[in-house]
Amino acid sequence: MLVVQKIIANKEAYVKALAKRNFDAASVLDKVIALDEDRRATQTKLDNILADSNKFSKEIGMLFKNGEQQKANLLKEKTAVLKESSKELSTKLSDLQNELTEILYTIPNIPDDSVPNGQSDEDNEEIYKEGEIPKLEEGSLPHWELAKKYDIIDFELGVKITGAGFPVFKGKGARLQRALISYFLDKNTAAGYKEFQVPHLVNEASGYGTGQLPDKEGQMYHVTGDDLYLIPTAEVPVTNMFRDELLMESELPICCTGYTPCFRREAGSYGAHVRGLNRLHQFDKVEIVRIEKSENSYQALDGMVEHIKEILRELKLPYRILRLCGGDIGFTAALTFDFEVFSTAQDRWLEISSVSNFESYQANRLKLRYKDANGKNQLAHTLNGSSLALPRVLAGILENYQTPKGIKIPEVLVPYCGFEWID
């Protein structure tokens, strides 16, 4: 959520920056500024009335003590009028604050200056590419056919149990999933991230805190009886551990990692590009989250990018990095880098990670602050990234490592799997 004082100070710059997102901000920001002026004026009136009321209350006590009952009763009548006015102003102030907050929730984050212009994912900027794309032999298969051939993932059984987008992993497929989770967590903890196991359901306040609500309400599974939401990513519960916290500067940075299943209702289209593991309603992901001082957050973002690069190098998967354009960047992010693995059998790139800096946008929603060296409270910066999302990493491994003999397991995963081949 944007800070009102910064909107007032930077309105024209914000309008220009938000145009990158194809978001017409001028009238919305004008309304924010007008509401804030009304809110501040109402607060001043209320403060003055409360001050007068307190002053009269003290005078009434003295008048009664001195036997001046008539004067005291006149002041009591004035105090009663002031109390009624203060109630009305308190109600108005609350309504104005609620209206202001609701409008702020509809305004996306200000994109970083480095975010390129663009309307869609076709306009994202490729900034890095690494790894040799393997040449597969004739008759090579996409991962959904490999899954069936080697009996390691059963998509039809998932449909029977739940519905489309909920696969069942079997035998060596399940063990490979578990190996990837353990490997990712070990890499993250070795890099200084503290591991957490967090709830898979969150309350409404947590959804608002990290920006999934109200923006992505229709994409989240809602447990209506308890008013809880199944998490779309570990980012939500992990970041919300720090909601309403005032940290000390010496505690930063805070680096967290956690594995969770993720649940997304997002409606999928049909075709090969969403077949198999390409798009699921339930999938596994290991997440990294950082809480940083504002001046360190972009250096931290670069460090997260390098960390994920190292993982993909060890897996020996060809990948590229995209800087997302204004039309494709997420609602809450200031800058996002997407990692994509090349799927040789499908002849296409598959997104396997997003790494984002939210600057103070989430922290303002979360009321996540730290006390700096001068004793002043500052909004923290939050960052998160997939490290990594399993389905498309697994798809890339199955397709790129397939041979006539079977599927060779990447060397770095063999100690975690306990086997070298799926055959």
Which characteristics define this entry?
423 residues, 8-stranded mixed sheet, 13 helices, 3-stranded antiparallel sheet
What do these coordinates show?
With 423 residues, the chain is an alpha+beta fold. It is 42% helix and 20% strand. The protein is built from 13 helices and 18 strands. The protein has helices at residues 4-9, 11-18, 26-65, 69-105, 143-149, 155-161, 171-190, 204-210, 235-240, 297-315, 361-366, 390-400, 414-417; strands at residues 125-130, 153-154, 168-169, 194-195, 201-202, 222-223, 228-230, 246-248, 254-263, 282-292, 319-323, 335-343, 348-357, 369-371, 377-379, 381-389, 407-408, 421-422. The strands form 5 sheets. The chain has an 8-stranded mixed beta sheet. Helix 3 (26-65) packs antiparallel against helix 4 (69-105) and helix 5 crosses helix 12 (390-400). The radius of gyration is 27 Å and the shape is elongated.
Characterize this entry briefly.
The protein has 423 residues and is of the alpha+beta class.
Q: How many helices in DSSP terms?
A: 13
Question: Would you tell me the overall average pLDDT?
Answer: 94
Distance between the termini: 51 Å
Oligomeric composition of the shown chains = single chain
The percent of residues in helical segments reads 40-55%
Which structural category do the helix and sheet elements fall into?
alpha+beta
Q: Which geometry do the CA atoms define?
A: elongated
> How do the strands of the widest beta sheet line up side by side?
1-11-12-13-16-10-9-4
* Radius of gyration, taken over Cα atoms and rounded to an integer in Å: 27 Å
Strand content: 15-25%
Give a count of the beta strands, DSSP E runs of length 2 or more. 18
The profile of the biggest β sheet is:
8 strands, mixed
Q: Low-confidence parts lasting 5 or more residues at pLDDT below 50?
A: none
